[in-house]
Write a structure and sequence with these properties.
Layout lengths: L8 E4 H26 L4 H29 L2 E7 L3 H14 L4 E5 L9 E5 L2 E11 L8 E9 L4 H22 L1
Antiparallel strand pairs: 1-2, 2-6, 3-4, 4-5, 5-6
Length: 177
């Protein structure tokens, strides 16, 4: 079975959330400044800026802050057609290959396939495995998304783990074909 991509996608979730929150605050400031400086003449423009600012503020709180809480400040993700169990085995094998013991935890959700969190002592990275829909891929249906949340200081070892996980996922794919 082919995987959707062979590269990890990078996302700086903290920077995205901060950008939208800062843009909302900037528009609030501009709207208030316009009303205070020009009074009634700028009321319509100030109201429009404040409306856009409130929309951006609500949008960032509803969309980006939950993503920041779920994925962490910096994350890498990859989609695979492998099952959650196969992805879990690939990640635990990669962690155990580095001489550490992996801890697996299942998150309680209402969904039919709960996400799996894989961590290890001494490794700052945390892997979250969940069922997802991959909109960019040509094939429809359910995909397994592997998300690695990385603190800003633990990048070296986290990158080596990403390479090992992809090798394990592709090795499992080649073995089954």
């Amino acid at each position: 079975m082919p995987s959707a991509s062979t590269e990890w996608a990078y996302a700086n979730n903290a920077r995205i959330a901060l950008f939208f929150l800062a843009l909302a605050l900037l528009l609030i400031g501009m709207g208030l400044l316009a009303v205070v400086a020009w009074g009634q003449d700028a009321a319509l423009a100030g109201g429009a800026l404040l409306t856009i600012a409130v929309f951006l503020l609500v949008f960032s709180v509803l969309v980006f802050l939950p993503r920041l809480a779920r994925r962490g400040a910096v994350s890498f993700s990859v989609y695979s057609r492998r099952s959650i169990a196969d992805a879990e085995r690939a990640i635990t094998a990669a962690i155990e290959e580095s001489g550490r013991t992996a801890q697996v935890r299942r998150v309680r959700t209402r969904g039919r396939s709960p996400p799996v969190i894989v961590t290890a002592d001494g490794i700052p990275a945390r892997f979250r495995i969940e069922v997802s829909r991959h909109a960019a891929g040509p094939e429809t249906g359910e995909w397994t998304e592997i998300i690695e949340s990385v603190p800003l200081f633990g990048e070296g070892e986290a990158e080596a783990l990403r390479v090992k996980v992809l090798e394990r996922l592709h090795g499992a794919t080649a073995a089954k074909e």
